[in-house]
Amino acid sequence: MSPEGLVLIGTLGFAALEAAGWDAEAIGGLTLGADPVAYAIAYTSAVHGRPIRAFTVRKEPKAHGTGQLIEGPFHRGDRVVIAEDVITTGASALRAAAAVRQAGGSVAGVFAVVDRDEGGRESIEQAGLSVVSLTSAADIIEQMP
Questions:
Q1: What strands, in cross-sheet order, belong to the sheet with 53-57?
Q2: Which of 66, 82, 140, 141 is deepest in the core (most CB within 10 A)?
Q3: Spatial distance between the Cα atoms of 86 and 117, rounded to a whole number of angstroms
Q4: What's the CA gap between 85 and 105, in Å, rounded?
Q5: pTM of whole model > 0.85?
Q6: How does strand 53-57 pair with strand 70-71?
Q7: Contact between 83 and 38 (Cβ < 8 Å)
Q8: The pLDDT of residue 61
Q9: What angle do CA 82, 85, 91 make, to 5 degrees?
Q10: Mean pLDDT of successive 10-residue segments in the chain (145 residues)?
Q11: Are 34 and 82 in contact (CB under 8 A)?
């Protein structure tokens, strides 16, 4: 959540989404891990003239207010990217994808900053979703002194 981290993730994440060709209208995922990732990419997308709206998927609907699972500028019919900070089991991404589908959206794919190489990518892909990650745990460990 540092300014430098948001600039880096926003820039690299937006470029990765463009390269994937997912043509999403919105990006978001299960709160809290996905939130700064989605917001950074949404900001960067606006700077580049290709706005992608950010949303948050709650873990449980609020008992008051709108009572919705998805908060923010998500619209029925949106094509979305599910955001993750780290993929471990894939359960958070799949839970967010289910909420999006239940609300009338479609999922273009899952974007993660780090894939921990613990089977999460495979679980998500077995559910029929493409995964793009900026790096993996193995890559990070390889760069450590």
A1: 70-71, 53-57, 26-30, 79-87, 106-115, 131-136
A2: 82
A3: 10
A4: 21
A5: yes
A6: antiparallel
A7: yes
A8: 82
A9: 60
A10: 96 98 98 97 98 96 80 97 98 98 98 98 98 97 94
A11: yes
| pLDDT value of residue 88 | 98
Contact 57, 26 (CB under 8 A): no
Position 65, amino acid: G
CA dihedral 136, 138, 144, 145 (to 10 degrees): -160
Q: What residue spans of the chain are helical by DSSP H?
A: 3-20, 34-47, 91-102, 120-126, 137-143
What are the tokens at 85?
């900070």
How close are the terminal C-alpha atoms of the chain, in Å? Answer: 25
- Pairwise CA distance, residues 27 & 66, whole Å: 20
